[in-house]
Amino acid sequence: xxxxxxxxxxxxxxxxxxxxxxxxxxxxxxxxxxxxxxxxxxxxxxxxxxxxxxxxxxxxxxxxxxxxxxxxxxxxxxxxxxxxxxxxxxxxxxxxxxxxxxxxxxxxxxxxxxxxxxxxxxxxxxxxxxxxxxxxxxxxxxxxxxxxxxxxxxxxxxxxxxxxxxxxxxxxxxxxxxxxxxxxxxxxxxxxxxxxxxxxxxxxxxxxxxxxxxxxxxxxxxxxxxxxxxxxxxxxxxxxxxxxxxxxxxxxxxxxxxxxxxxxxxxxxxxxxxxxxxxxxxxxxxxxxxxxxxxxxxxxxxxxxxxxxxxxxxxxxxxxxxxxxxxxxxxxxxxxxxxxxxxxxxxxxxxxxxxxxxxxxxxxxxxxxxxxxxxxxxxxxxxxxxxxxxxxxxxxxxxxxxxxxx
Length: 406
Fold this sequence. Notes:
Radius of gyration: 21 Å
Helix content: under 10%
Largest sheet: 6 strands, mixed, barrel
Shape: globular
Strand content: 35-45%
Mean pLDDT: 80
Strand order of the largest sheet: 3-4-10-5-9-8
Distance between the termini: 16 Å
Structural class: mainly beta
């Protein structure tokens, strides 16, 4: 099945319109499977909008990570799965990170990895002035950034390996101490790159991401990956194709509107069966982003959604009280009493359970569990943007494809 190419674009930006081509063959024996673990961090490593209002420091700051190794080393690096950026990178042993690096990548003692020269044809990254190595800068939407050098080496995913380019971080800004608390060692950026219309002169990073590189090396059947999460954020990552054993029924597909990331079009939102009263114009560009903790809604959408919940479900504890779920976390599990959120993406409805958009967070110090709203108000003075983070993705299998038609 191929999406028709005559649908009008709802996105007010000049973006290439991409359509998913569904011609996957399940070569299940060749697929790579990695365990996904959700970790709590003191500062969301890749939260796009940590300056958003109506979210306290006790709300959901979580990331999902998968383990990888490099070369012959047995050291496992936990990398954040991030569909909102393009670079896969580890921390260098000489990283300017303002805290001790827990699992540094030793650039001088690695037998299988070496820095890529900026004159090498692999270095499809804009360089400033004279250079000797292929250096990169990744700027995140929340204002954080990483800088470093591209290396080429053997990366191991499960039982499969490939010699591919990856980043080694030498400087980090604004990320907080998430990398230093023994939970996160780097980022697996899975935004699309080499299949898009890259322009190095404008700062685009045109080096294939990890999934594309594994496909180019013949280590997986196709540049496809799936992420399956339970309501606690744990699950598995499947790389290389579609695995029908992970779901019942048929997959539903959405066209993408972007050169490099996963943008679709949201058109309406219901709280249960109550229409919030917003349109595509209010949502703006809608990004599917595994690197963000929450569902981030533009101010209008967030405000109307909050009003509908407070008006129709105000009898539920912690909805209209002084201490309420919109302030962050509450001590009582109110999820069984709340309705699902029903997003209309393109012409399809996606039902988000309250067990996804309210996250159970265990406090080891107090030996108790609190329940945190994984929905936040997006403060972005530029244009409306909706971020579908882990508060949206938990409880589903999502398949990300690199095949598309211009």
